[in-house]
Amino acid sequence: MVSASFAPETSFLTWGFAASGFFAAGFFAAGFFAAGFFAAGFFAAGFFAVLSCFFIFVCS
Fold first, then answer.
1. Using the 8-state DSSP alphabet, how is residue 36 labeled?
2. What is the largest CA-CA distance in the chain?
3. Distance (Å) of CA 24 to CA 13, 14, 17, 29, 53
4. What residues make up the domain containing 1?
């Protein structure tokens, strides 16, 4: 009787922990994705800066 009523609670608890774990993993993945976006932005900014300096050097 006790084990029968206790089993769904434990399974719900483990599913809740697993869901929160996947949610946290998704948050970390989104964070890494955003960091990659920032890195790509800095890379593009540096590339355009070098390109503009090169054009200024060539044109002048």
1. H
2. 88
3. 16, 15, 10, 9, 43
4. 1-60
Handedness of CA 33, 34, 40, 42 (dihedral sign): negative
Q: Which pLDDT score is estimated for 1?
A: 46
Binning pLDDT at 50, 70 and 90, where does residue 35 land? very high
Q: Which amino acid is at 45?
A: A
Is the pLDDT confidence value at 7 over 80? no
Residue with tokens 């932005």: 41
What's the number of domains the chain is made of?
1
